[in-house]
Structures are given as structure tokens and as C-alpha cells.
From TrEMBL:
Catalyzes the transfer of the enolpyruvyl moiety of phosphoenolpyruvate (PEP) to the 5-hydroxyl of shikimate-3-phosphate (S3P) to produce enolpyruvyl shikimate-3-phosphate and inorganic phosphate. It catalyses: 3-phosphoshikimate + phosphoenolpyruvate = 5-O-(1-carboxyvinyl)-3-phosphoshikimate + phosphate. The lineage of its organism: Bacteria, Pseudomonadati, Pseudomonadota, Alphaproteobacteria, Rhodobacterales. This is 3-phosphoshikimate 1-carboxyvinyltransferase. Belongs to the EPSP synthase family. Its EC number is 2.5.1.19. The keyword Nucleotide-binding does not apply. Pathway: Metabolic intermediate biosynthesis; chorismate biosynthesis; chorismate from D-erythrose 4-phosphate and phosphoenolpyruvate: step 6/7. It comes from Paracoccus acridae. The active site is at D326. Monomer. It is found in: Cytoplasm. 3-phosphoshikimate binds at K28, S29, R33, S174, Q176, D326, K353.
Amino acid sequence: MSHSSEPRPMTARRSGPLRGTAHIPGDKSISHRALILGALSVGETRITGLLEGEDVLDTAKAMEAFGAQVTRLGDGEWSVYGVGVGGFSEPESVIDCGNSGTGVRLIMGAMATTPITATFTGDASLSRRPMARVTDPLELFGAQITAREGGRLPITIQGAADPLPVRYRTPVASAQIKSAILLAGLNVPGETVVIEPEPTRDHSERMLAGFGADIRAETTEEGHVITLQGRPELRAQPVAVPRDPSSAAFPVAAALIVPGSEIRVPGVSRNPTRDGLYVTLLEMGADIVFENPREEGGEPVADLLVRHGALKGVVVPAERAASMIDEFPILSVIAAFAEGTTVMNGVAELRVKESDRIDAMARGLEANGVKIEETKDSMTVHGMGRVPGGGRAVTHLDHRIAMSFLVLGLASEAPVSIDDGAPIATSFPDFLPLMQGLGGDLG
Ligand code: S3P
């Protein structure tokens, strides 16, 4: 996968109006979960619209290593014959999750309450990221865990033979921590409870209910409380993966900042736990129309019609951060083309993503003539309605940093280059041809 590929420098240049229809790939979060829940179910789960990015392909390989039968039937169409809750077998070799925090954290959860041992590794970016946030609660179930210094990968987990149910308050709002605990809770007698400070993306809850688990969520004075009844028999389900709103954000952003643009982006998920960027863009005055709202694969979706227009700076409240956590890099690019200041609050988690995204965006935007300030948990971009460009950004094995700076270059006065676009394949393998098809000058 990308872990072994050579760096691929890329450049984006000022482009004419973007026009056409952008068919976005399947949602990354839902794709990982479809494979994992399929592997934990009895019978055949047929998946359509699966994201065939490197992150998800690594999860598919991992599910095979734990004993599921995973077959690619066609474009985005996959079949998973699962082994049932508690049915994972011990993998013969190390599980390499590549660049994917979601993959490794969810799979560690899924195996931690089965009496088998597995070792997990990943690329240089993943090996720098904190894992104790997941391994700490997994130890409470009774799993025995050995990690490298600082709780980092590689990590070996000896799954609990007699797991105990856990009630756990997550220290940060993170769907990956929540999901790891819920997946571990599947093979435990009794109720597993997760309390999160703010609601995070709820795909695990929706999909677990769809596969037949008894799971409920409520907001109490303690926080957002999710309760799962252990040892369900998960029944294989067809899963139609909706298109990824986080990937859609890149062509949407490009259309908003390149003068004269008008694009359509059909079938994008509008799950309220993922919708923060779109809420923010409307506040900035963006011309986005949500057409044909409907339900697909258990998720609300709509067709987006996006046109270029004037934008103004806004303050993004900290409570909204969880619902747009992956969209701050591209929002900081859009904000540079707005008139006035955009403040993004409550974004400390950006420092532990595929890269330190606050630092990566600040350095790259500065190199392209944009004024940006950072604190440990905020970013402020001073929009001038135009961006000089002409700089080079360092992407630190981070797909969203790479795509953000390429979008920047489509509307800045001088070209913008990046040191490495190879990681784009982790989440959006057809990003370049898709953007070129809309009229973008990049490659
Ligand atoms: C994800 C959760 C988020 C997000 C990531 C996908 C998921 O991570 O940034 O891209 O699928 O659960 P955190 O849980 O670390 O916030």
C-alpha cells in the first residue's frame, strides 16, 4: 500500500471555472465499519459503494487475517462472510493498518475481547499517533497490551478470555475511541457503556443496530451516553455506502473559490454528526443548494449544487468541532479566500491526526502568503479575498493536507506545490482525475 510508495510531488495552478458533476467515493468511516461488522456477523454481507482507498483495503486484508472471507466482486462491490461475534481466529502475521487510525483503533477493539493474540503496526504517520486512548479502555475489559513507548504502535494485544463489561467516559470526543469500546463490548456479557463529552459521528451505533445489536443512545447531564447489550448475534446485512462528505469537501471548496464555477456533487451523506463544514459554509454565505434530500443505506443524503461567490469570515464554535473534525484543513483554505477573519475553536485534536494539522496548515498557508495564527487548540485565518500562492507545502503523509493545498493552488495567483501527493490514495484514489475532469489544472 502507500506505506512503501515513493513521494509524489504535485502542483496546482490557477484554473478557469470548474464545471460538471463530481462523483465522490464511498464514505471512509462507513466502509471500515461495513467490513468489520460484516466479519463479526453470521452469513454474507454484501457491500456496494465501498471506498477502495488504501486505508479500507488494509482493513479488508485484516478481516481476512482474522478469519473472515472477503471477496471483491466488482467496482466498490464486496462480499464478506463473517465468523460471528467472538469468532475471530488468531492471525498468522502482523496486522499492518498502513496510514489508518480508524482501521487500527477499531480492529484493536474488535479483537480485544476474544482470547487470541495479535500485533498491529502501521506507517510512519500512524506509528507517531497516540493509541493509549484506545488501549487504556481495552485493558479494562481484561485485554493485556504491550505498546512501544508513549503507547505507540507496534502494539500487541492478548485478548481477554473472560472479559468484563466496561463503563467508560472518553477523555476526548472521538468516534474511534467510542467505536473501539463498542466493538469490544460485543463479545462481553452484560452492558457496555460509553459516555462521550460531545456526540461524535454515529455510524457505529447506526450500523450495529442495523446488524441486530441492542444499542441505545441518550443525552443526559453526564454527556452523550451509549449503551450496548453484549453477545448479540449479528446478522449479515446488505450495506450501501453513501458518498463521503469529508471527501466531497475538496471539490466543493474548489468550486466555492474558483471564480465562475458551478458543480454538482450527488448523493453526499448529510448525517448531522458529519455536517459541521456545510453548516459553517452556509454561515460564510456559500452558494450551496441541497437538492433531493433522501435516505440511502440508513443515512440522510442529498445532491449538492455548488457555485462560486463571495464569502465572509466566521467564528466556528468549539461545540461544532466534532462534526467537522476532518474538514478544518480545507476550511482554512476556503477562509483564506473569504473577506475577514475566520476563527476555528476547540480543534486541539487536529494535532494528533495523520499529521499535526494545525502546524501543517499554518506553515503551508504562510508559505503561500496567507496570514494565520495558531494556539494549542485554535486556528485563525485572516482572509483577504485572494491568495498570492507560489509556495510549497509539506504534507507529512497526510492525505487531507495534500488535497487542501492542491485546492488552494487552483485559485491562488501563483502555483502551489506539495512535496508528496501519494497519501491521497488512502482516502480518495481518483482525486486527480476527478478534479481534472471538472477543469482543474493540477497533477
Ligand atoms: C473517524 C473518527 C475521527 C476522524 C477519522 C474517522 C471514524 O477520528 O478524524 O477520520 O471513522 O471513527 P477521532 O475519533 O480520532 O476523532
